[in-house]
Write a structure and sequence with these properties.
The chain is mainly alpha-helical. The chain folds into two domains: 119 residues; 140 residues, no CATH class. 64% of the residues lie in helices and 1% in strands. The chain contains ten helices and two strands. The protein has a two-stranded parallel ribbon. It is globular, with a radius of gyration of 18 Å.
């Protein structure tokens, strides 16, 4: 099957298992698939989704303590939901946007496969705890930004990988630290899964950064000015410290961008050198 058609078909699938298997196959076959960069597909507002979890506003997702089994499962379920949406975010980039270099589509096929792997790890962890994906309510926030940028690939690269997904680089070490206080086999396993996700998400954010700057160059846009404008136009969430400077630097953020990030959060702009080490 042609690569973008394959991505479209997997995007439409409402079965988590079928979506995972389709995304993994897409990643394996991406280099060998035919690729039609000019084809337009019938627009889809939303990906295929299972009947559960129930989707609610972010503020309506209950907060639970990770010190209980149910609370731990709810926390990991929320991350699994993010990873499930991330599969569709990568697939959407492939089928929705036309006339990009071939490397763009193959990059996002590889990312879709890695997001599917992340979801599978989290799903298996939930199952070991006695829960399933869908057992807890989840929010719609990540997909809302995808909808807002459906007609602007530059805004998509600006506000999904290098904004929303970059927030995951900041949040993951905090979650790991919280789980380390819980201790026990489940917490230890969860910390390991989150480390795999963090390590691979750095490259996902880096891919978004690379294509964002490439698109800005092609359109003769000032990357910094355009980003500020797009973030305001689409109500991107305000940056929330503490920031994982080393992971963001590894993902391609420049010193100037890190300083602007600090300013946006009301912090002194200078980033201490010791915080820019290896992740």
């Amino acid at each position: 099957m042609e690569l973008r058609q394959h991505a479209y078909a997997v995007f439409e699938s409402s079965s988590p298992q079928a979506k995972v298997e389709g995304a993994l196959a897409l990643g394996r076959e991406a280099m060998a698939c035919a690729l039609d960069i000019g084809r337009n597909f019938a627009p889809l507002d939303k990906p295929g989704r299972p009947p559960k979890p129930a989707l609610v506003e972010p503020k309506d997702v209950p907060r639970r303590s990770p010190y209980t089994v149910q609370g731990h499962a709810a926390l990991m379920h929320s991350i699994a939901h993010i990873e499930f949406n991330a599969i569709d975010l990568a697939l959407d980039c492939i089928w929705r946007f036309t006339d990009m270099p071939e490397a763009f589509y193959r990059d996002w096929a590889a990312i879709a496969a890695e997001e599917a792997k992340h979801f599978s790890l989290l799903q298996a962890h939930l199952h070991a705890l006695g829960f399933l994906y869908g057992d807890f309510p989840a929010h719609t926030g990540l997909w809302t930004m995808c909808e807002n940028t459906a007609h602007d690939i530059v805004a998509r690269m600006a506000l999904v990988p290098r904004t929303l997904e970059a927030r995951g680089l900041d949040a993951t070490p905090l979650i790991q630290a919280k789980l380390a206080k819980v201790a026990g086999p489940a917490a230890h396993e969860a910390i390991g899964i989150l480390q795999i996700i963090l390590d691979e998400e750095v490259s996902h954010v880096a891919t978004g950064n690379r294509w964002y700057h490439w698109l800005c160059e092609r359109a003769h846009l000032d990357a910094g000015a355009y980003y500020a404008q797009a973030a305001l136009q689409h109500a991107a969430p305000r940056p929330k410290p503490p920031f994982n400077y080393s992971a963001r630097r590894a993902a391609g953020f420049t010193q100037a961008e890190l300083e602007n990030l600090n300013r946006s959060a009301g912090l002194p702009p200078d980033v201490p050198a010791e915080l820019l080490g290896a992740t």
